[in-house]
Every structure is written in structure tokens, then in C-alpha cells.
Amino acid sequence: MRIIAGSRKGRTLEAPAGSATRPTADRVRQALFDMLLHAPWGGRDCIEGVRVLDGFAGTGALGLEALSRGAAFCTFFETDRPALGALRANLAGCRMRDIAQVFAGSVLRPKPAAHPCGLVFLDPPYGQGLPAQALAALSRAGWIAPGALIVIETGRDEDTTVENAEFLAERAHGAARLSIWRAGGGTE
């Protein structure tokens, strides 16, 4: 697993042993960022200079990829101790600790946000209905900016519905499905 593009292109990322963490594969991240950059609703300004939230962060691959591609700052939420160790090692190895914050806690119970985020990644354990719970908690705590792009990775057959958001795109990759939404309340 590595950073695909940007200032840290090619940087190898650590992942904890075992199956508790399921990092987003390089090819899926590449496809996702290609969509973000080239879709009619996307473009460079949906990443560059934007504050990012990586919920259920695991190794931090999604947030780190966004930072490598020019995001201004990323907040990571993770609860698993081995994943937190890998995430912190990846931030240090990529020399990105100064543009990131790690919360060793649940994205389902976030602290109030100091700054809302314009790009939100959620890659929860499959089949537990966690995206809707996380989005509700993040919205209440002020983490999601009006018009933010919300990227959700779920199992291929999971239902993903986002309240108060516009559906933009969906792609299946093996057992995973990516869906992208724009939060209500205006545009960035």
C-alpha cells in the first residue's frame, strides 16, 4: 500500500497485522481520486486547500492521499490501537504531522469541530449501518461544511442513503462500493 499521487507519491504506508483493519486498496483510491478530480461536480478545488475528515481512518490512507494531493489539513478518527499506531507512523513517515490531527476516539461521538470540513471520508466496517450514524453525529458536532463532498465506502450490497445530501456518483470495486454525496446547505 502506498500514496498514489502528489507530494508524497510512492511513499509506502504501514498497516497493522490481522484483518481488523481493511485499508482501501491502491487501485480503489486511484479510482476515487480520479472521480473527485475529473467528474463534472469535482475538480482540483474539491481537494486542494480543503480541510478533510477521515472517519474510521484505519491506516489513514484516504486522508494521507488527500494531503499528498494538496488538502490543507486532515482530522483522523480511529479507535483500534494497532490501527492508531500505523496511522501515527504513516503521518510521521510522510512528514505530515503538522497538517493533521488524530483523535483516538469514535467518529460516532466526536468532539465539537473547530473548523468544518469540505471533504469527508467514511470507510466503516461493512454491514453495521455505521455511515448514517457517523454522518448524524458529525453534522451535530459541526464537522461537515455546507456543500462538503462526502465519500462513503461500504460493502457492495449495502444500502447507503445520506440525509440532506445530493447523490453524485457510485462505483463498485470488488466487494466494495464507493458512493459520493454533496452535503446540503449550499456549495463550497
Question: Can you describe what's shown?
Answer:
With 188 residues, the chain is an alpha/beta fold. It has one domain: Rossmann fold. 24% of the residues lie in helices and 26% in strands. Strands 3-2-1-4-5-7-6 form a 7-stranded mixed beta sheet, with helices on both faces. β4, α4 and β5 form a beta-alpha-beta unit. The longest helix is centred in the N-terminal third of the chain and has 13 residues. It is globular. The model has no long low-confidence stretch (mean pLDDT 92). InterPro entries: RNA_MeTrfase_RsmD (IPR004398), SAM-dependent_MTases_sf (IPR029063). Pfam families: Cons_hypoth95.
Task: Provide a quick synopsis of the model.
This protein has 188 residues and is of the alpha/beta class. Helix content is 24%, strand content 26%. It has helices spanning 26-38, 61-68, 81-93, 130-140, and strands spanning 51-55, 73-77, 100-103, 117-122, 144-155, 165-173, 176-183.
| SSE-based structural type | alpha/beta
What would the average pLDDT be, to the nearest integer?
A: 92
| N-end to C-end Cα span | 31 Å
**Residues in β-strands, percent:** 25-35%
Region (Disordered): 1-22
Pfam families: Cons_hypoth95
EC number: 2.1.1.171
Protein name: 16S rRNA (Guanine(966)-N(2))-methyltransferase RsmD
